[in-house]
Amino acid sequence: MFALVDCNNFYASCERVFNPGLIGKPVVVLSNNDGCVIARSNEAKALAIPMGAPAFLYEKIFEKGQVNVFSSNYALYGDMSSRVMNILSSFTPDIEIYSIDESFLRFEGFCLFDLREVGLEMIEKVKKCTGIPISVGIAPTKSLAKIANKIAKKFSKKTGGVCSLDSQEKIDKALEYTKIEDVWGIGKQHAKKLQEIGVSNALQFTRLPNEYVRKEMTEVGLRLKRDLSGEKILELEEPAIKKNIAVTRAFEKMYSEYHEIRERVSTYCSRGAYKLRKQQSCCNMVYVFLHTNPHRQDLKQYRCNIAVQLVFPTNSTIELTKAALSGLAEIFRQGYEYKKAGIILTGLVPENQRQLPLFTTINPKHEQLMKTIDLLNQNQSGKVKFGGQDLGRTWKVRQEKFSRRYTTRFEEILWIHAK
After folding, report:
1. Which residues pair with 40 in a beta bridge?
2. Superfamily of domain 168-228
3. Domain 2-164 adopts which CATH fold?
4. Closest Cα to residue 6, out of 159, 129, 119, 114?
5. Where in the chain is the domain with CATH 3.30.70.270?
6. Other CB atoms within 10 Å distance of the CB of residue 214
7. Domain 245-376: which topology?
8. How far apart are CA 272 and CA 314, in angstroms?
9. Distance between CA atoms of 28 and 46, rounded to whole angstroms?
């Protein structure tokens, strides 16, 4: 059996753990630079605040609905996620961390256990140790566990937060309840095609001929159909090695000077190179892009990109920055107000399998320097910077509603005043 464990309204729940006064009140969390809504509590959803809503357009609604607005606090959310996943791994060693707030667990050899009781125990332990509420869906396959989780969450008062599809009758009922557009792995286009032939729910989808599903949705769709039918097709996956690494961000305001954007691109390269080294990869090409604000049609518009081929695969911040800045110099044009830039590192290869051109050698000083910098920055990102970056930290992301990093910064630890 598989279980899908999902943290309820995770970002909002993290804020509530350290500020219980937010419980029962609408909470939203904004994206980088306080741009758009990326998380909502149930109370905020009830106010018809959509996901991705631009914050500046909803300021009056936030004020009228007394919505508590927070800047994204990824240091806090990441640490709380790690704590939740560690607790879940104590129930079974077979775990796949699917996202920051979701994980699949496989229960083999638990035939003598009541898995619903195990699910309730997980909810209790995670709540007690972290304060985060979770929902648990249990079923014979991963895709069915996803459906069970949605039911557990939607009908939490009835299910207690746990839905176990442990019989064919329950499975059929859950499949019939699930709309085809809500099935994990079925996109809008496929859902539309299926609806056109009268398939409106997941149960009807599982009864389609295999030949039709393979023809219309390829082998991937057929694997999903078989998994929904109860065959264990989708297994737990190991953490994936990224094929591309992107570091992009909209500026907190528009910039027109080359040296300002040059600093941003240098900072992005530093971050991207660190991610490369963390997964023990090197890249063959750096893709650089730059564009103005498309929402400001009163200003001149410009967007451009360039791919810079590297002489040899590398994860050295020095080499990557040099390549990216050479590309930026070619695409930058004076006279425009720029709003966003970014880099994408592509053509990734394992660090221990990279091939070098004849007569090319790697500078051993770079490798040792990168290891030292990563070690120094391990506990506090950005402590050591390169010369092309802004040493004065004037490029800090706009986070006007940033909560404290209660669990990762000693100086921001929670204070309790006892009388």
Report:
1. 28
2. 5' to 3' exonuclease, C-terminal subdomain (1.10.150.20)
3. Alpha-Beta Plaits (3.30.70)
4. 119
5. 2-164
6. 15
7. Dna Ligase; domain 1 (3.30.1490)
8. 12
9. 12
Output the six-digit token pair for 43. Answer: 């109370």
DSSP label at residue 201:
B
Closest CA relative to residue 184, chosen from 242, 227, 216 = 227
The CA-atom distances, in angstroms, between 357 and each of 311, 313, 361, 362 are 8, 10, 8, 11
- Quote the CA–CA distance of 206 and 42 in Å, as a whole number: 32
- pLDDT of 380 reads 57
Which residue from 25, 35, 26, 29 is spatially nearest to 10, judged by alpha carbons? 29
CA dist 12 and 37 (Å) reads 11
DSSP string, 358-404: TT----HHHHHHHHHHHHHTSSSTTSS--TTS-TT-TTPPP-TTPPP
357-390: per-residue pLDDT in tens? 665 566 667 777 888 877 877 755 566 777 666 6
pLDDT-flagged residues of the chain (< 70): 239-240, 356-364, 379-383, 387-399
Pick from 156, 134, 132: nearest CA to 15: 132
User: In which element (H, E) is residue 196 found?
Assistant: helix 188-196
Give the residue from 141, 124, 125 showing the smallest Cα distance to 202.
141
Helix (H, G, I), strand (E, B) or coil at 302: coil
Find the Cα–Cα–Cα–Cα dihedral 180, 182, 184, 189, rounded to 10°.
60
Which tokens go with 58? 């909803």
Span 74-111, pLDDT tens digits: 889 999 999 999 999 999 999 999 999 999 999 988 88
What global pTM score does this model have? 0.73
3-state secondary structure of 83: helix
